[in-house]
Amino acid sequence: MIRKDITLGGVMAVLTLLLSLVGTPTQASADNGLALGVNPQLPANQVDPKHGYFDLQVKPDAKQTLVVALSNGTKAPIDVSTSVNTAKTNQAMQIEYGPNKLKSDHSLQYDLPSLLKGPKKVTIPARTTKEVRYELTVPKTAFRGSLAGGITFTVDHQTDGADQQKKTGVLNRYSYVVGVVLREDTHTKVKPKLTMPKVKAGSYNARNAILATLVNDQPTFIKQLSTRAVVTKRDSDKKIIDTKQKGQNIAPNSRFTYALGLGDNKKLDPGKYRLQLTVKNQDYTWHLKRDFTITDAQAKQLNKHDVSIERPNYLMIILVLLVLGGLLALLIYLIKKNREQKRDIETLRNK
């Protein structure tokens, strides 16, 4: 039940975010049967009015109020949690604008939650639209490139939600994300820089993987990427991993772990390895290479916790051995019994 709750909320968040970033307004109408409608009120300093998220050109030390209209189209009040988060990059090389435990790179000058302040909780009466205000304070010192993040809205409670949970055992929670991008100079492009300082063996989704630490230490997005990753033994050309992916994106000033899965039922062997990673888009290409070592202890520990690796069913083996042992004992007993009967018959005949 919990799985369904989380999945549905996640789908709504991702859907809303994707719509906002491709130029469709981040607007979810409460009349469509959903509990919450989200509509950012785009200000005069919006760079592109066609964008459904806050894409703002700002000035140093400026103060501004950002307004998001929240609509409740249901017959009961709803409680909404809100949070401001800095954009980060996840293990799939995609940008996270909502709440997460990911870390930014130390090169990040300003964290969006320190600049944008607003309420943590909002209650919206039934069939009402309420404006939620966030106070933006631009840093006094001019900054290069983009500061990026998002405002997340999550429906925590509906009066009729408790009844729904009692009847079905499920309480759906919906989340929506409105992107926020701040820029001072909209004409000068910042050149991105991508490095790979570390590679190691690890686990991803409870399966063996190679984990590459990637760093974009510049205040700019790196979008529409395609990647090819090849892992080999250091003294061999045999490819242990050879994967290609498209449509990946990296947030400004982000340090993240890029996970390369080995696949199901694949054990890690100790040894010396090499990862060659090519990352490119229309404007830039990076050829990254890093050697790494997997020790006996690391391989043993990771293989032990890989849920996809098939392991001997010792209980079944013991049961089979017991059955075979029992059959063998029975066979020996029958043979012995048969011989005794034959001896008895011979003895009777001789008498």
Automatic annotation (TrEMBL):
Stretch forming the signal peptide: 1-30
Matches recorded under Pfam families: WxLIP_HBD, WxLIP_PGBD
Domain WxL Interacting Protein peptidoglycan binding: start-end pairs: 38-154
Domain of life the protein comes from: Bacteria
Keyword terms of this UniProt record: Membrane, Signal, Transmembrane, Transmembrane helix
InterPro entries: WxLIP_HBD (IPR021759), WxLIP_PGBD (IPR010317)
Positions of the WxL Interacting Protein host binding domain: 166-304
The keyword Signal belongs to this UniProt entry's keyword annotation: yes
Tagged with keyword Transmembrane helix: yes
Residue ranges of the TM segments: 314-335
Protein name, UniProt field: Uncharacterized protein
Organism: Weissella halotolerans DSM 20190
